[in-house]
């Protein structure tokens, strides 16, 4: 059981980090250069590993491994989330210098939603052991959905909510910096940034529903679940720009994630059987970590090999999205 003062300190640190990141994104709208992005992605990864080491010495190696397994799984799901963000940015022709503002808001939204689901999940598991059956089945269904998923940078169908909002609220036809509302001829108008951020928050909700059952398949400790998610989302804004065109080459990422989620789903179902009194084997967390890392290595390797002759998106992902947006405008 994690003491309340550690929870308080952890949440305070996370709030400070995300507040600084958000203020910086709003005050300095720009497309993050490769060197800056690489530094911050590396910084947050090292911070996560140092945190894992502290857990290892504080609470034992099992907890340390659970954190690493959860962190890698959540980071992998977050990368898939980034791909959807790319599609959203391209669909709404968001200027590259304002993308990091929207990304940071999306990341904060994801953290808040995941924290809410963590609390709900912890309470449900504590009270109803059969929830593991629900989580396991949900992950298996999510894995099937991922296998059918097709990311298309050129087009993305709008949700009914977005279509309804576009008809109901006064929208400007152009962006006005990173502002969400402006006054034109004395009339209050919303900019397309509002529609984009709503689309991103809807994506956050979907991925939160996927990610929380996945990590509860690796650890039952709410503190590990929260910190793994918090670290996985740190540096995601910079990773968006660091990966650039490489992200579009990860063509088998959905297959790899589908396998990982299916594996964790089976692990949860076995655990549920164990809780119900059946004599079934359980999959060790160390084995789970090995399966996750191996799957990701194979997925990335096969993806890069399959797309080695593909024309990469320009360095600086914003240029690539601007190019896609320009092509869409020419079509219409």
Features:
globular, 13 helices, mainly alpha, 74% helix, two-stranded antiparallel sheet, 2% strand, 332 residues
The proportion of residues in beta strands is under 5%
**Unreliable sequence segments:** 313-321
State the separation between the terminal residues, measured CA to CA: 58 Å
The strand order across the widest sheet is 1-2
Helix amount, in percent? Answer: over 70%
Structural class, from helix and strand content? mainly alpha
What gyration radius follows from the Cα positions, in whole Å? 21 Å
Quaternary state of the chains: single chain
Largest sheet, in brief, is: 2 strands, antiparallel
| Overall pLDDT | 81
CA-based shape: globular
Structure commentary:
By secondary structure, the chain is mostly helical. The longest helix has 31 residues, at 61-91. It contains 13 helices and two strands; from the N terminus they run ααααααββααααααα. The protein is globular. Helix 4 runs parallel beside helix 7 (192-216) and helix 5 packs antiparallel against helix 11. A hairpin with a 2-residue loop joins strand 1 and strand 2 (187-190). A two-stranded antiparallel sheet has the order 1-2. It has one domain.
């Amino acid at each position: 059981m994690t003491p309340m003062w550690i929870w308080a300190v952890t949440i305070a640190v996370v709030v400070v980090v995300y507040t600084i990141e958000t203020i910086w994104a709003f005050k300095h709208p720009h497309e993050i250069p490769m060197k800056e992005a690489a530094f911050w992605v590396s910084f947050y990864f090292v911070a996560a590993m140092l945190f894992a080491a502290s857990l290892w010495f504080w609470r034992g190696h099992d907890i340390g491994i659970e954190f690493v397994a959860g962190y890698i799984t959540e980071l992998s799901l977050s990368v898939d989330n980034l791909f959807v963000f790319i599609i959203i940015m391209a669909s709404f022709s968001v200027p590259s210098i304002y993308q990091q503002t929207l990304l940071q808001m999306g990341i904060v939204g994801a953290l808040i939603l995941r924290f809410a689901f963590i609390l709900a999940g912890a309470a449900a598991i504590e009270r109803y052991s059969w929830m593991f059956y629900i989580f396991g089945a949900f992950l298996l269904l999510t894995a099937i959905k991922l296998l059918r998923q097709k990311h298309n940078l050129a087009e993305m169908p709008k949700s009914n909510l977005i279509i309804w909002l576009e008809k109901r609220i006064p929208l400007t036809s152009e962006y006005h910096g990173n502002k969400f509302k402006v006054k034109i001829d004395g009339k209050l108008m919303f900019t397309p940034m509002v529609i984009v951020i709503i689309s991103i928050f809807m994506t956050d909700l979907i991925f939160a529903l996927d990610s929380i059952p996945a990590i509860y398949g690796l650890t039952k400790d709410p503190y590990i679940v929260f910190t793994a998610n918090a670290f996985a989302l740190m540096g995601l804004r910079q990773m968006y720009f660091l990966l650039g065109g490489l992200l579009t080459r990860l063509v088998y990422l959905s297959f790899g994630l589908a396998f990982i989620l299916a594996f964790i789903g089976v692990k949860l179902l076995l655990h549920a059987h164990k809780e119900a009194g059946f004599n079934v084997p359980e999959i060790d967390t160390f084995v789970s970590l090995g399966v996750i890392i191996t799957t990701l290595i194979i997925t990335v390797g096969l993806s890069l090999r399959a797309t080695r002759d593909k024309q990469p998106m320009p360095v600086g992902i914003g240029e690539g999205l601007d190019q896609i947006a320009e092509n869409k405008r020419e079509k219409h």
